[in-house]
Amino acid sequence: MSDNGFDPEITIFTCIYCAYMAADTAGALRLTYPAGTKIVKLPCTGKVDVEYILEAFEQGADGVCVVACPLGNCHHVGGNVRATKRVAFTKKLLDEIGLGSGRLGIYYMSGGQGHAFAEAATEMTEKVKKLGPNPLRQPTQHPHG
Fold first, then answer.
1. Which CATH class is domain 10-131?
2. Mean pLDDT by 10 residues, the chain (145 residues)
3. With the C-alpha atoms ordered 65, 42, 98, 81, is the resulting torsion angle positive or negative?
4. SS3 category, 81
5. Cα separation, 119 vs 115, whole angstroms
6. Single pTM value for the model
7. pLDDT of residue 140
8. Closest by Cα among 59, 142, 57, 118 to 91
């Protein structure tokens, strides 16, 4: 399968606790994950608003994912549950507007799970690679073309 050199840009929203620590652990372990990932740290994934997710797509992200603390283990009690509900709602919106819910994902992990973070970033990139570039992206926004 040819991907025409398409290297998806993925925006990853993380909390400053488990999820960002997992990203940091991935780096410390020298684990590789796709270079097209951009990490946005939030105090808690419960702060992920539908508007932030849509804005990432408007700014040219080909895919977006939220990496949250494991369910039942949020430092802000139910932030990851709020994030889960917002992701589900946003997936419906993405289908309605024609972008497709497959461009958005949510993963749960604890701070020491660097391998899980690298796998999530890779899995999301591969999923989006099959979907193709974000149709909202302006040609001038892509750094490679």
1. alpha beta
2. 75 92 92 92 94 96 96 88 96 96 96 94 96 82 50
3. positive
4. helix
5. 6
6. 0.89
7. 55
8. 57
Burial of 135 (0-12, 13-18, 19+ CB in 10 A): exposed
Q: What angle, rounded to 10 degrees, do the helices at 79-97 and 50-58 form?
A: 50
Cβ proximity of 40 and 9 under 8 Å: no
Lookup: tokens for 63? 């895919």
- Reported for 25-31, long-range contacts at CB under 8 A and 24+ positions apart, including other chains, are 25/111, 25/112, 25/113, 25/114, 25/117, 26/114, 26/115, 26/117, 26/118, 27/114, 28/114, 29/114, 29/115, 31/114, 31/115, 31/117, 31/118
Structure tokens at 138: 């302006």
Residue 5 structure tokens: 């050199």
